[in-house]
Amino acid sequence: MKNDESKERKGVKIGRILCYASLMTVASVALLLCGPVLAQEETIELKATYPRLESAATEPIFKFSVSLAYRGGQAREFDLRTSGPSGWSTYVTSSDESARVSVIKLEPDESDPYQIKVIVSPLPSTRLKAGDYTITLMASAGTISDSIELTAVVIRTYSLNLSHRGYLEANANADNQVSLTVRNTGSGELTDIRFSADEPEEWIVEFKPETIDRLAPGASEEIQVNIRPASKAVDRYYRYRMTVTAAADQTRQTTAMSIRVEEPQGFWMWIGGGIALVAIGLFAFVFLRFSRNK
Question: Which strands sit side by side in the sheet containing 168-171, from one edge to the other?
């Protein structure tokens, strides 16, 4: 009886051992079968250190640092493509900006993701307006791909420029026309631009037009300034200084004019005519006197 029980216990133990061995075998086979499947799964991930950058410059340049983390079984070459708003330049460079990059070779499972930069800027011919501009970067190799959106934020700036050509000459007590160029050098629209002058005493200064309702970023407009110096403001060796101011709702700018004042051309014509008449009279007097003596 005891022998039978002992044999039965040994049989149970052997059965358990065989069961465990079978389970281990099945698990090993499953791991071997799944191993190649897991090894074939490849991914690329793009991350930006600062995906949103702001600039208040009139000609901004945005530089986005982006990392590429590749996981896979072998090295691969990834195509890099960018897309941005119309009128903007977008391209990829190495992290030190020493070279432009369109294809990059990545080793899998690098501990430090590869770093690149996306350089974004509006073209010189683009009329820049304040707002958000979206740029997309994509990296792809076959069916493996990832993309990231970057945002360039242009902040409104308000500034204008007044310019005229060099020194000015004007006739006293007469109308003198001068062209003045007004340019919006900021990124925001300027409204209600008004003109004024800090002119010498008894001078008259008029602007046409007197105001500009709106001036878009990058746009310019020419105005005419009529300057009428006082009749006594005649000095060929002295230059008068006059300040012109353009004041918009958002900002203001001044420019100085250096003006030399001369006698009106009519005055010199009268002087010249008088001298000519005197000369003719003297000639006639001398001629008649010598004729009588003969």
Answer: 168-171, 252-262, 239-247, 190-198, 211-215
